[in-house]
Amino acid sequence: MAGRIPDHFIDDLLARVDIVDLIEAHLPLRKAGKDFQALCPFHGEKTPSFTISREKQFYHCFGCGVHGTAIGFLMNYRNLEFREAIEELAQMAGVEIPVEARSHNTPNTRDLFAVLEQARKHYEGQLRTAPERQRAVDYLKGRGITGEVAKRFRVGFAPDGWRHLFDAMTKAGVTDSQLERAGLAIRRDHGGHYDRFRDRIMFPIHDRRGRVIGFGGRILDQGEPKYLNSPETDVFHKGRELYGLHEALAGGQLTSLVVVEGYMDVIALSQFGMGNAVATLGTAVTSDHLDQLFRHVPEVTFCFDGDAAGKRAAWKALEISLSRMEGNRAVRFSFLPDGHDPDSAVREFGADGFMGAARTFGLSDYLLDSLKVEIDSSTSEGRTRLVARAAPYLRQIPDDTHRAVGARLLAEATRFDEDLIRRELGFTSGRPRARTSSGGLDRYTSRTLIEQTLALLLQRPHLSARIDAETAAFFREELHDSAMLLKVWEIASGGVASTAVLLERFRDTPEEPAVLELSALQLNISDDAFEAEINGAVGRLRERAQDQRIGRIRAIPFGEWSDEQKAIMRDYKRGA
């Protein structure tokens, strides 16, 4: 299993890589004062609002709000995983990732990728050369699969026989242990191995980088199971992977992805020009699936059969989607006409008519539509029950805008006042007022004192020296909202080189969204005024902490004061 990449390595890596040079290799930049600007690659715009700071080693778009470090840029721009971005930056900087932290580059998994790729070539070759290949070819032709699309998805054939692949691979130098670890061979109880896949059409499963990580096999005639997937291995985890994602991404820039249930559905849709289809691997949709989908596109459509099984799968996908609805994300649910699956529907209605033939719902629409099946909303009691049933689901939506859509639809469905529904869903006030634009200074000065101090430290980590250990201990004791400030101070006090280094320490933590937002604030403070600003902020925090301490002591009966508390009060009165 891969080890954790040490913080000190990431710190050093970010110190070696200049974010301006990195982004300039992907986008044309222009100088704008101390910073650089470009057209944002993450949303369409005609006027540059994407700003890169060499001083902070940080980028921020004032149009769509995206921001981050060199690592975050590679992850978002190139759709890389965190570790993949680290590997690429390390290669650019000419440094080696510590051995204990390496992932897919270690011999433990590298040999599996080679074995699986060799197996893919074997299966693909058998579709052309095996004596019994005609049955497989006839099956594919019968399903309407052309040779061109079969080649695009590297479809192959596993002939019948207990050791067909095993004997061919071991003859080529692959060990029985490697075949077993790759999920291609099964060990017999009494010794020896036999092929996992026999007499099946073979669908290689690729990761996003195009490496074969497993297989799915479809039985040719009768037999169970109809579809057989590779088992879980060191490189294959079916709850995370999506069939067809690599092929969809290779087809060009995507704006949406359609999730279907089977290999043949993906292949048929691709053949008819819908190259944005992917499939789960015999499992229900998982949170890992959805996170991966949203890393590539803002819009996901789950396409299911209209039967009971399809509706159960849709409800599972809905439950997972609720907590991930934010920003410009959209989730839709499409149900095909009775008797159709995606394969048959696209052949009957074509790519242009495919979605039109289905009943499609937005996320909140589908939630309410599903709940109304169980509740008679024609009565006042039923409408009350509908609110009670829907509210716990809608409250899971973190984004106010998406949740507001749910509030409006629920108000329309129940004929209750929308403000009442909004309060039920956790809004602190009624309908939102129109937002007014304000400058960066207003955004900074309107923040709490803690947030202002955090923004100063995040954007100028060296200012951590303006808070000594005694002051930090005082804040920790008296200011209950200072935990994140003190965490930032503690890390910054370790001598981090830049805002980017500081931010990476918060990756995948609950504090990450807040520190990213505060790092992107326009402070409108001149360079020589930063020290005075932090001194003033720390001074005001000390005053607040002192007031909290005095109030806490005063709440204790005088006769119960400790000697220390009496001394504090004497000093306070002398100062007053």
Give the helices and strands, then pairings.
Blueprint: H1 7-16, H2 19-24, E1 30-32, E2 35-38, E3 50-53, E4 58-61, E5 67-68, H3 70-77, H4 82-93, H5 107-129, H6 133-142, H7 147-152, E6 156-158, H8 164-171, H9 176-181, E7 185-187, E8 193-195, E9 200-206, E10 212-219, E11 227-229, H10 245-250, E12 256-260, H11 263-271, E13 277-279, H12 287-296, E14 299-304, H13 308-321, E15 330-335, H14 342-354, E16 359-362, H15 363-372, H16 380-394, H17 400-414, H18 418-424, H19 440-445, H20 449-459, H21 469-478, H22 483-492, H23 499-504, H24 512-519, H25 530-554, H26 563-575
Parallel strand pairs: 12-13, 12-14, 14-15
Antiparallel strand pairs: 1-2, 2-3, 3-4, 4-5, 6-9, 7-8, 9-10, 10-11, 15-16
Q: Could you provide a short overview of the structure?
A:
By secondary structure, the chain is α+β, with helices and mostly antiparallel strands. The chain has 26 helices and 16 strands. The chain folds into four domains: 7-101, Alpha-Beta Complex (DNA Primase, Chain A); 104-236, DNA primase DNAg catalytic core, N-terminal domain (Alpha-Beta Complex), CATH 3.90.980.10; 374-424, Up-down Bundle (Pheromone ER-1); 440-575, DNAb Helicase, Chain A, CATH 1.10.860.10.
